[in-house]
Write a structure and sequence with these properties.
Layout lengths: L20 E7 L12 H15 L4 E4 L5 H5 L13 E5 L5 H4 L11 H9 L3 E7 L6 E2 L7 E6 H4 L10 H12 L1 E7 L17 E5 L2 E6 L6 H14 L10 E6 L8 H5 L24 E3 L2 E5 L4 H14 L4 E5 L3 H6 L7 E5 L2
Parallel strand pairs: 1-2, 3-4, 6-7, 9-10, 12-13
Antiparallel strand pairs: 1-14, 5-6, 8-9, 11-12
Length: 347
């Protein structure tokens, strides 16, 4: 059912990710030109993520017909039905023909409509190009909420070149039901696949509290970005007027793609190249909040892996923090646990 008007006009708002979920949605990795070893390594870690989330809430995995048997053998998630509404944003493969991750995204354009049809949920269509990882909200309702995003992504000329910053902000307010948008200039260093998605850089832990990707190494190119964001957040207030508490979450590494990892990808020219020596956009901010659980990546950097679990445990004292070993396999294909999941909120 296609809806008329904007979500905020009809009393909708986007809930925070820590609010109760009816289920989690995931997509199954398959493309050999993006995932090394015909995606076998990535599929193994995706299955670990789905299994971890399923301890807290149901998981529904979207896969092609060809992969159905493979995924069925590795997952046992079910999904209940709840009544909410969904926004069907536009999509152009994270940057279009010239800068996107792959050349043909025609089937991707049907995913949101398909899911909403399966769930029998109302659909709000929108022509603006926007990916879920480019926004993060604090969930405050009745037009008192706050949204985080980056100029590097939403103002990139490869997304919505005919829209001004003010126009984009107005659309975010109208469709997410928020009152205020806080813009960080840039996302995580090296996050070229998404042009600086906010979910690799900064997120809300609760209203008035944010987690920020951080490094103490002044020689790391990430340092300038973290300091820049810290300065903006330190001087910002949320929609209710309160100052933000900033929790620093140190990045791992730095980590780089190896020759072996790059050689495992079918570099056929139809997808963005995966080149050896490329710095991986690895961040512990890219975690998933489940019902009572925090599913966080572990990159094999023990110092910062352990530190991330400790920081997240303190930030979410009522949640069980579950670390996913081998999450490097996900970041090799772009993004991480937050990028490959999508919560479906309970009414």
């Amino acid at each position: 059912m296609e809806m008329n008007g904007t979500p905020s006009q009809l009393g909708y708002h986007m809930p925070a990710e820590w609010e109760p979920h009816s289920q989690c949605w995931m997509g199954w990795p398959e493309r050999p030109d993006n995932w090394r070893g015909n995606a076998v390594h990535g599929q193994h870690v995706f299955a670990k993520v789905a299994t971890a989330i399923s301890m807290f809430e149901p998981v529904t995995v979207c896969a092609s017909v060809a992969q159905f048997v493979v995924i069925k053998a590795q997952s046992n998630s079910d999904n209940p039905e709840q009544k909410v509404a969904g926004i069907d944003w536009n999509f152009n493969s994270w940057g279009g023909v010239d800068d996107g991750c792959y050349e043909d995204w025609s089937l991707d354009l049907h995913v949101a409509r398909k899911i909403l049809g399966i769930e029998r949920l109302p659909r709000f269509p929108h022509t603006m190009i926007l990916e879920g990882g480019s926004i993060h909200v604090d969930g405050e309702a009745f037009l008192s909420g706050t949204c985080l995003t980056t100029e590097e992504c939403l103002l990139n000329e490869n997304r919505n070149p005919n829209m001004t910053k003010e126009h984009i902000e107005d659309e975010l307010k109208a469709y997410l039901g928020v009152k205020k948008v806080i813009w960080l200039p840039r996302g995580l260093y090296g996050d070229d696949d998404t042009n600086g998605h906010i979910d690799n850089m900064c997120c809300f832990a609760k209203p008035g509290v944010v987690l920020l990707s951080w490094t103490d190494d002044e020689t790391d190119p990430q340092y300038e970005r973290s300091m820049e964001a810290f300065s903006i957040l330190s001087n910002a207030t949320d929609a209710s007027g309160q100052k933000l508490q900033i929790i620093k979450l140190h990045v791992p590494g730095p980590l780089f793609m190896t020759d072996e990892e790059a050689d495992g990808v079918a570099q056929d020219g139809e997808a963005k190249p995966r080149l050896p020596g490329t710095r991986l956009a690895a961040s512990y901010v890219n975690f998933y909040i489940a019902n009572g659980g925090i599913i966080t990546p572990q990159f094999g950097d023990k110092k910062w892996d352990d530190e991330a679990v400790c920081v997240l445990s303190q930030a979410f004292p009522d949640h069980e923090v579950v670390g996913i070993e081998g999450a490097r396999e996900i970041v090799l294909g772009g993004g991480n646990i937050h990028c490959i999941t999508q919560q479906q909120p309970v009414v």
